[in-house]
Amino acid sequence: MLERADPFGSQALSRIFLARGAKAVEPPPGLKAFPERGEVFVSPRLRDLLHEQPELGQRLPGREKGVIGRQGLARPDELVAYVGMSRAELPDGSALTGFGGPDADVPLTTMDPSMLDNLRFTLACVVLLPLVVLLSVCARLSAAERARRLAALRLLGMSIREVQRVNAAETVAAAGLGAVLGVGEFWALNQFVSRIGLPGFRWYPDDGALTGQTLVACLVGCPALAWFVGRASARKAAANPLAVRRTALGKPPSVWGVLPLVGGAGIATVFCAAGATGHALPSTRLTTLLMPSAVVLLGVGLVTTLPPLCRLVAQRIARSTSSLALGLAMRRHETEPGGALRVATGLVLLVFAASIAQGVLLDFDQSTKNTSSVQLYELHEPRLTAGQWRSVQQLPGIRAHAVTASAEPVGSTDSNTRFDVLLATCAQLRTMVPRVGDCHDGRPLRLWDPSQVQGRGATPGAKLRFPLADGHRSVTFTVPRQTVRYQDHASIGVFESGTVVLPPSLLPPGARPLAPTYTLISAADPRTVRTVLDGIGHVAPTVEPITPGVNLTDLLQVAVIRTFMTVGMVLGLIIGVAAYLVAATDRAVEWRPQVTALSLLGAGRRTLRAVQVAQVVLPLAVGLALALVVGKMAESTYLITGGSPVYWDGAGLPVLLVCALAVMAVAALGALPLVGRRIDPELIRRD
User: Fold this and answer.
1) What SS3 class is residue 435?
2) DSSP per residue, 559-588
3) Strands 398-409 and 483-487
4) Which is nearest to 291 in space by CA: 447, 419, 125, 51?
5) Which helix (H) or strand (E) holds 228?
6) In whole angstroms, what is the distance from residue 160 CA to residue 241 CA?
7) pLDDT one-digit tens code per residue, 75-118
8) Which residue has the higher pLDDT, 213 or 130?
9) Pairing mode, strands 419-423 and 398-409
10) Which of 125, 320, 342, 465 is deepest in the core (most CB within 10 A)?
11) Which residue, among 98, 104, 44, 47, has the nearest Cα to 69 in the 3D structure?
């Protein structure tokens, strides 16, 4: 068996070459028969790609015989091919005794554990924070009416424990029904979405099935938690029923709620200051613990700071404004700042989480992005024939090529003392790097780039022996003292400074170096890279081209992470909007008596709508401005701690500003219908 994994866009194309041996081996998973020579079995997704892009078949020598079953695939969109060969065509193959087992090698993992932890943390911020707000808003929905009902039961003679049990039983019934509906909905969604797939990631329905632990946690844990929450939430109304009054004013928000924000901002400021001075803190256990702590403190502080900050702003505006609508709105915030927390928190936290998500995506993109304008291909294949090498040089997209091999000092007995020698002419050098100084063919050269850290090159004046293959006598030459200045590519180095260049004319006719490395250069755009890899696969199917700057594992992980981050952002947006709608509707119902009273006192409908818009826009404006500042601090803290080359994501700020303005506009428009034309005096009499 010989396995090769090549990049195909952001995916990995796995080619497994198999040749029959003396002993029979069970067919690979997903196949009914072992591939014969010239037979190719492909995955369903690869079969579709072969029909869309026939040139991809150059990497698979043979005829398509069948399709790999789901037992042999990790996911439906995996690109895998089994290719039947002869034993002579696989000189580098390894002995195969069977497939599977505890010692089976997995060449590509779907997700690295550290990246998986980062994904979990980010999704917790993007999804769970708005979800907590939604649950808290729903828990307080009609809380005043429920408290009055429980207080009435207590006054009718029920004991405190009986009142708590009644409320707990109602809560458990609702939670149990919700858990059953949620599990059923997930099962249906898993069956539907797994067959359609998400962009860049698909899975089989069985892989997304709920485990026994998850079912127990949902169907038993949720009702059990609801029991304790129901008993605790009814304790106040059962213990002191006469204190439950609609007209009772709530306590003003505590100033101590600012402490989490101050603590998180202090930690984030230390990281940002270290990054601004170019002395980023090293990645240690302490910094790994402080970074998520700072993000959590900033998120919690953003919630706890919003009520006192909105109350302070409302007091200042109410004292200085002469507008009736603005004054009414600010006085309402001043006496009841908790309403701002319920209405605005979900959307504010969504903007905060979006900043963190931008930082995570930026970090992953930087880790896998090839910023160079060229792409290198290294072929470490000594059995590549001269004809194959000439064919590879003439592939479409190839702009330069060269051969590198090792030379050793004459008389040295240390086999580890070797130096890289490049076989190229001056014309080849000029096609491989942006600039080459005064270069003359026919004699050895020594390259020098002052911008590079000088590598371990050969000492000038030393004699080196350059071994040749096919029985040719080695070539001996002296390392020149004079250097040729050159400039390499900015983000990817083709040569090391100090490399010796040996003209091909110094070699005997038809001679080739021993254990050469063939280097090719093309443009870095995905189409050209794919064309070159297809051509190499056609000329030499079993050769494994090394592509510096393209990490297959990272590309696969980033594709999966980007997919789930998008899903998380959509879920967070839905949850945040739902929390806003629930809170805004609940507040509108609670404010109907006050709106009716103001209408009876002569306030116009336009004035009341202006009041509604002002009391919605104020907490959103304060919260979103704070979320933008705090979110950027959290994002920079993550980037600096993660070792990203980019610390400040200025490109994402305009997007967040536009989103914040859009949120405020939608919230203002949504507040207009909350004031109707009809006046119901019964709301006044009921109070």
Assistant:
1) strand
2) HHHHHHHHHHHHHHHHHHHHHHHHHHHHHH
3) unpaired
4) 125
5) helix 222-233
6) 10
7) 888 899 999 998 888 888 888 888 876 655 554 456 677 778 77
8) 213
9) antiparallel
10) 125
11) 44
Tokens of 522: 């093309």
| Residues in a beta bridge with 424 | none
Cα(442)–Cα(440) distance, integer angstroms: 7
User: What are the tens digits of pLDDT across the range 42-61?
Assistant: 999 999 989 988 888 888 88
Order the strands of the 2-8 sheet from edge to edge.
2-8, 11-19, 79-85, 39-42, 63-67
Burial of 391 (0-12, 13-18, 19+ CB in 10 A): middle
Q: Which residues of 462-479 are buried (b: 16+ CB within 10 A; e: fewer)?
A: eebebebeeebeebebeb
Q: Scanning the structure block, which residue is given the tokens 């069948």?
A: 66
Question: How far lies 250's CA from each of 39, 132, 243, 335, 588, in Å?
Answer: 78, 22, 12, 8, 18
CA distances from 469 to 39, 383, 473 (A): 34, 11, 8
The token pair at 56 is: 């991809």
Give the CB-side neighbour count of residue 633, counting CA atoms within 13 A.
25
Strand ranges in 75-142 using DSSP code E only, listed in sequence order: 79-85
pLDDT for 5 equals 82
The Cα 625–Cα 619 span in angstroms is 10
Query: Which amino acid, 151?
Result: A
**SS percent in the chain: helix, strand, coil, step 5:** 55, 15, 30
- 8 A C-beta contact, residue 233 and residue 197: no
Distances from the Cα of 78 to the Cα of 74, 101, 102, 194, 213, angstroms:
7, 21, 22, 14, 29
Q: In angstroms, rounded to a whole number, what is the distance separating the alpha carbons of residues 555 and 356? A: 21
List the beta bridge partners of residue 42.
67, 81
**Beta carbons of 630 and 265 less than 8 angstroms apart:** yes
Neighbours of 665 (CB within 10 A): 11
Coil, helix or strand for 634? Answer: helix
- Nearest residue to 670 via CA among 613, 619, 620, 621: 613
Query: What is the chain's Cα-based Rg?
Result: 35
Burial 83-99 (b: 16+ CB within 10 A, else e): bbbeeebeeebeebeeb
Q: Which residues does residue 477 pair with via DSSP β-bridges, in sequence order? A: 464
- Within 10 A of 439 (CB to CB), how many other CB atoms are there? 16
Task: For 478-533, give the DSSP string.
Answer: E--SSEEEEE--SSS-SS-TTPEEE-GGGSPTT--BSS-EEEEEEE-SHHHHHHHH
Q: pTM of the predicted model, to two decimals?
A: 0.71
Q: Which two tokens stand for residue 166?
A: 């009644």
- Residue 434 and residue 489 in contact, taking contact as beta carbons nearer than 8 Å: yes
pLDDT tens profile 328-382? 888 877 777 666 566 777 778 888 888 877 777 777 666 666 667 788 888 887 7
Tokens 């030499």 locate to 540
